[in-house]
Amino acid sequence: MDTGNPLLENGVAPRQQATFAESLAALDEFRLSHPKEIVWMLRQFAIEKDFLSVAFGRHGQRIISHVLHVDEGNGVFLFDYGAGDIDNRILLDSQEILFSGMLDGIHVRFLCGQPEPHFYDGLSAFKVALPKSLYRIQRRQHFRVEMPIADPFICSATLPDQRRIDFNIVDLSLTGVRLRPTDTSLGELAIGATLTDAVLDFRDLGKVESDLNIVHVQSNQNFSDPIWHLGCRFAALLKAKEPEVQRLITYLELRRKGR
Known about the structure:
This protein is of the alpha+beta class. Helix content is 16%, strand content 39%.
């Protein structure tokens, strides 16, 4: 593998101004910590053979690597050596390693401790403990997972006229949800209206509760089946609940892809 040490314009390698852990502190809203989620993400890197940038050392050394194997039972994963012997030796002495990569167009970062030398398929590799957290970084306005059509999840909510009705959930993001009324006679709801006491029921994966503000109305109607899709924003989703919704989105995406 090729190595590449980041250089400033004057050709001097930059000093590491903060620990890698400190550099991830501002990304807490994107943090995943469930072990199954972390194992799944690392296995996707191995399956897709996507590159990972591995940063380490006091002077910001860096190699490009791949995930070779994930051993969930022993709590470790393997990644391959870089091309430079000096960098590989420094990496083996490093207490903190930052991995960065792209998976399905999404930035992923995670932090690991000191690795050990290992052999995999007869070649030199690194072995390191699975990370405690993984950061899946995609700005929330772009992050949207589609729901199953054949067996839809249901959102029940109270309309402004106090009627309680059900909607099919079309897709979900950290900022909101798209809904399809199950009652085709309901007609168009007004932009700016609020659906109160909404409960998004994802069955075995749990529920999300929040008032919903209607911000967009789209008509997909035809002659025999007038259908409205409502774009809604969460009106009162607590900050503490966002990691829970992010985790839910990850599971739903995993199911959607059949993995």
